[in-house]
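Hi V.,

Quick status before I head out on leave. The structure for the redesign project is tokenized and pasted below; the design run finished overnight.
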């Protein structure tokens, strides 16, 4: 063991204190999404990227309906993804109605892990994918 000086000890302590109070970002957002506009419709927040809409925030209520597409400034954006921590941060949600037919990704682990959440699906391929992943899902087609 080597002896450290009082100055080295306090410098190390100060560095640890700064790390402890510095908030970590919830996620490292890819550079291509940093300047994307966000829009809220029916209490659901979407990030618009090219002609796609990504669900980033949902209301904390018992049932949430995610549409197939949204319109903003005269353009139609197809809902393609549900972002990480979108559902997880809403403990009241017990039912999600997925009307999105072109869903490419569901990044929120709450949909896969929370058996209390019922997903009602309007698309055959999304329904089959969710069933294979043991999600509590019902079909509506």
């Amino acid at each position: 063991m080597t002896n450290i000086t009082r100055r080295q000890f306090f410098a190390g302590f100060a560095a640890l204190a700064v790390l402890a109070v510095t908030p970590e970002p919830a996620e490292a957002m890819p550079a291509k999404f940093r300047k994307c506009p966000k829009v809220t419709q029916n209490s659901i927040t979407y990030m618009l990227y090219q002609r796609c809409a990504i669900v980033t925030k949902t209301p904390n209520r018992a049932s949430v309906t995610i549409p197939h597409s949204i319109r903003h400034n005269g353009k139609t954006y197809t809902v393609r993804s549900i972002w990480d921590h979108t559902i997880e941060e809403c403990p009241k949600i017990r039912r999600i109605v997925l009307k999105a037919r072109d869903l490419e990704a569901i990044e929120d682990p709450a949909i896969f892990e929370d058996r209390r959440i019922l997903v009602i699906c309007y698309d055959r391929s999304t329904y089959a994918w969710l069933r294979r992943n043991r999600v509590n899902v019902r079909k509506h087609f």
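Above is the designed sequence. The two ends are 70 Å apart (CA to CA).

G. will cover questions while I'm gone.

Best,
W.
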